Amino acid sequence: MALSAVVAGQQPQYPPAFPPTPILPSSINYAPSVMPTVMDLTAPNAQSICPGYTASNVQNGSSGLTADLTLAGPACNAYGNDVRDLTLSVQYQSKERLSVKIFPKYLVPGNQSLYILSPTLTPQPALELGASKANSDLAFTWTNSPSFQFQVSRVSTGDVIFSTYGSKIVFEDQFLELVTSMVPNYNIYGLAENLRGFRIPNNFTQTFWNAYNLENDQELDVNGHSVHPVYLETRYGNSSNSESLSHGVYARNAHGQEWLMRNTSITYRTIGGSFDLYFLSGSTPKEVISQYQTGVVNTPYLPAYWHLGFHQVRWSYQNWSNLQDVVDAYAAQNIQLEGIMNDLDYLKMNRDFTNNPGHYDVAPGKVFLDQLHANGQYYMPILDPNIYVPNPANASDAYPTYDAGAAVNAYIRNGNDSFYIGVEWPGFSVFPDFIVPQTQQFWTQQILAYHQNVSFDGFWLDVNDAVSFCTGSCGQGLVGENPIHVPFALPGDPNTSVAVDYRYPEFFNVTNATEAASASSALMSQSLMYPTPSATPTPTVGRTVPTPGVRNLTFPPYAINNFLAGHSLLKQVIAPNATHNDGPYNSTEYELHNLYGHTSGNATYNALKQVYPGKRPFFINRSTFAGSGNFTGHWGGDTNSMWGNMYFGISQALQFSIAGIPYFGVETCGFNGNADMELCTRWMQLSAWYPMYRNHNSRNTIAQEAYRWATTAEATRRIMNIRYSLLPYTYTLFHQANVAGQTVLRALPWEFPNDPSLKAVETQFMSGPALLVTPVLAPLATSVQGVFPGVANGTIWYDWYTLEKVNVSAGENKTLDAPLEHQPIHVRGGYIIPMQKAGNTTKTSRQMPWSLLVALDSSGKASGELYLDDGISLMPNATKNVELAFANNVLNITVSGNYNDNLPLANVTIAGVSSCPHNVSTGSTGSSGRAGWSGWSWPSSWRSSPSSWWSAPSHGQTGVVTCNSTSKVVYITNLQQATSNGIWTSNSMLVVQ
């Protein structure tokens, strides 16, 4: 079937989302353009014209110092008004963390929020008990020659990790700048969010201004949905055998900002706030990440067990029956489905806390949801943090949700006595002001009330970047026109150029030439019928000249390189001069824009905790800030259905590992555009390793559920069975992240930090410490190349599927077979992985017997961990920690805690034995007072043949032992009866000799 016919056949026939009212006039969507300062060769160089500062009144103490900083010459007023008097505060906050703050000495009441980021918005680290300069890993030094400069160095080696020597501190009311010199060819990572390579280039500008690009939400190298101003730097020794040293830098500032990576320096610029810097000593990458999460932004939340399942959503699921059909289709294909999600379709004209009449009525919804929950599955609809403003002249347009928020002044204001009214999916809309308590109360009440009608299991919060599809408070005086259509055609809108996306998938012209030709013809016909309107040119606005005592919030003197049209801060967001209700400050969006996703997410999470008292709700957030990981996960935005977007998703996931948001995923198979079978197959395989795993696409594209193509379905079954069998391992990783700031997905140089050849590897990654994933990231490939770190130092790698040792040389880029339904996976020697057989949901998987995979290192040893609880409670009543250790042919199991699942151990597989064993015995070694395994053994006369049977007549227990003398793998199976009381009830051991 030709692609054009497939698209037309799968395109849902639904009524228009809005009455046929006109699209807003272009004048309302007008935003003047500006030239980003980094591109303006005539822009002033603050380092050349500004005087810097002089330090005085220095007060030294055991935990740090304070000083006054005074402007060292005439004000330069480069991009704002110079602040004459500043305060320097240096704190040795812990052994591994040093804080350097520079802020105005005189904070006038009413303007403190312009400079100081409140700890109520995001965590602010403080001095820890016992911390002092004397026991710090880091040292702060400074000079006044020729002006105030400082540097931070490592005490143990003297290495300087941050230095402003040779540059000046610039501090103005709308522009701050400092420059740190860098070592040659420096290696830094992080600064999420950006779609780019894993290692940040030494000639790159990272802009931070949360934004949403309707035309291409996955554009490379531009600002994205989130702001995490933290980076990890790794410096390698002079040879591959030398130890590396890593450290971290976090700039706690939410204003629009830029980080200019250049060959020998990094320049940090922000259009407001203060310098609030934190230096982390590491000295390994994993230690830096842990120090950031445990000591700076708080550790990530522990997702519920079921959150780790697979979820499906599509913009165009028209009704409850449509959702049921999708659920049934996954079941019929024996593909796990944990949750079904809704995009905007379930809402009445896209208004929060409503139901689309005739499509998502409450009564049939209850039937659907009751059955879904009975199956151990879940339902999570979309939610947007904007509230429709009803037409005051139309009584039938009443919207109680708006009235409830207006009554308590819960909405952002237009700088006067009116609410700020922008345009969002419902039409003219207001935006909840999540930094004030009455909005939390309003938001919680609405969510609780809606749950009474629809028993949803969580939310995914969208367009909280914060998006508005017009410029300024464009709805002032126009709400009488509501409901309106957004000022552009939406995917799937009838009689538009985006009604159906006829673009054939990338490389489809190669893999499916006949269908591609048909789709091209249909696209050409559509283009002729609905030509793309030519863009109206907008004038270029010259640089804003600073005015004494005045801050220009809409066009600040320094223009950051916001990628949206015109580079304007006004474009497609709540305007910077919109005001909040936090008297006496009345903070503006200029200060808080990058925090809207963070605060709206926190409010939604708090509300969901009220919906499910004592439980961990499902919640993911499109826009995040430093500290968001403590309550939310994140998805990477409206991914394009392209191989390059799939490729860079790996780097995006690793960025969020640094940022402290491990529950991350992408729109598998792509949201925008059409995916084909091969792309979707490879993407389903890759995304199976992302902690958040969902498939999602737009309503004007071909359907791409995993069951749509037979090959994709088969590949998905294989990889999803692996994912579900590894849920105990993954859940344990999340527990370690929650208690110790460890990572779930890991870059290769984090596990092997002393190998400089790994510093830019972005086509492979690890799940925890034990599993190496080598995905196929290119079309028409039946093999893939990958490296195997640590081989030079004796690391052993095993093929996941055969458990044979990989024959590979140190540094070799080995070619691996990877036919379309197969993904190469390898196990690192030295680790024990607890598993359970995959069920059709996480619920059934948790009821399966246990198994252990023991992958021995070159010394014949391995270790592992397992964390258990009920998988849902915020504060579990019972937990269990299991330590697994294999050495000297003995597997020791040490347990602590009182959670008990009473499940037996089904089998133990040991890879890498030196020879097949002659005797296997088990027994309880604990002192817990509870019975462990019943002691049993089998005689030494059992044969080392491929299949040897044994029995223990005294207990009536029978098991099977198989040993492959070639691959050196021992399989001990059928242990359920011997461990019927539960394997984790007490300490126990298994002797294999």
TrEMBL record:
Gene3D superfamilies the record matches: Glycosidases, glycosyl hydrolase (family 31), Golgi alpha-mannosidase II
Similarity field: Belongs to the glycosyl hydrolase 31 family.
UniProt key word Hydrolase: yes
Protein name as annotated: alpha-glucosidase
EC number(s) stated in the UniProt entry for this protein: 3.2.1.20
GO MF annotation terms: alpha-1,4-glucosidase activity; carbohydrate binding
UniProt entry tagged with the keyword Hydrolase: yes
UniProt entry keywords in alphabetical sequence: Glycoprotein, Glycosidase, Hydrolase
Domain Glycosyl hydrolase family 31 C-terminal, first and last residues per copy: 741-833
Domain Glycoside hydrolase family 31 TIM barrel residue range list: 300-733
Cross-referenced InterPro entries: Gal_mutarotase_sf_dom, GH, Glyco_hydro_31_C, Glyco_hydro_31_TIM, Glyco_hydro_b
Reactions listed under catalytic activity: Hydrolysis of terminal, non-reducing (1->4)-linked alpha-D-glucose residues with release of alpha-D-glucose
